[in-house]
């Protein structure tokens, strides 16, 4: 008898698990949370390290997950991060394990995390201009982010991927400069359209810097040709820069959605399965696990949660409702 898989009724299979380890962050990026912060999840509701390891283990060993990415908030703030990565990379079959981070603290942690088995990192870097960084993140910590990126590369976490959100009137003129920076350091840059996941619910489509605008700005300085490599379920469309081999990616979540190829399942820091980033409902695995449920029962509940996944995020539908959780409490 074949093992269960995280299938939905539209034929997609989730093999990529995003695990939020905390909703806390040491930056206050305007597209994510207000400057004053948010009410944090109460500690008793958070998954313990052992619970995270158990649930990830079920996903990998029973449900066919092959990639695990730890996110936040800021996952480097999780005290048990190294032990969690160490345990997950000991699973059989071993999943690919990555981390999405703002890199503050990565200068100190890059080598220990590699020793624990971390394969690669995605770093949020919206600007290389100090004033723009302070305006976007409400903190003067650009040097710590850049030093963390360098440390990740030096520790062998290659390729280092940079994720950039352009905000109109703040850093929307920096696309070419960011690509020059990435090329100079052999990093892989991906621009991401701002999504309706801010805590204040102020997102407006007409204020979003679109994929088309980003490409137009880049083409003013670079020759971009479509990447002939098969995209598969990757969220980014990629282009060869000046003939390659360097590439740049654009994730057009809003204007160029890729929902039909989505292969993700998400687990929040308080143990809720979300079958879509924009889902308005969740399935509680935390309380199920704490009630004494066995691995088989938890796996079955996870399968049920994914079966109900909608065909798309529906942002263009008049009935679309922004999720009650902001990005910081869902995980990137």
What is the secondary structure topology, with strand pairs?
Blueprint lengths: L15 E5 L28 H15 L3 E5 L9 H8 L7 E6 L4 H11 L3 E5 L5 H8 L4 H13 L6 E4 L10 H11 L2 E5 L18 H9 L4 E3 L10 E5 L5 E5 L12 E4 L4 E3 L8 E2 L1 H5 L4 H13 L19 H4 L2
Parallel strand pairs: 1-2, 1-10, 2-3, 3-4, 4-5, 5-6, 6-9
Antiparallel strand pairs: 7-8, 8-9, 10-11, 11-12
Helix pairs in contact: 1-2, 1-9, 2-3, 3-5
% residues in beta strands: 15-25%
Largest sheet: 12 strands, mixed
H-E string: EHEHEHEHHEHEHEEEEEEHHH
Average pLDDT, all residues: 91
Low-confidence stretches: none
**How many strands in all?**
12
List the total number of helices: 10
CATH topology: TIM Barrel
Task: Explain briefly what this protein structure is.
This protein is α/β, with parallel strands linked by helices. The chain has helices at 49-63, 81-88, 106-116, 130-137, 142-154, 175-185, 211-219, 286-290, 295-307, 327-330; strands at residues 16-20, 67-71, 96-101, 120-124, 161-164, 188-192, 224-226, 237-241, 247-251, 264-267, 272-274, 283-284.
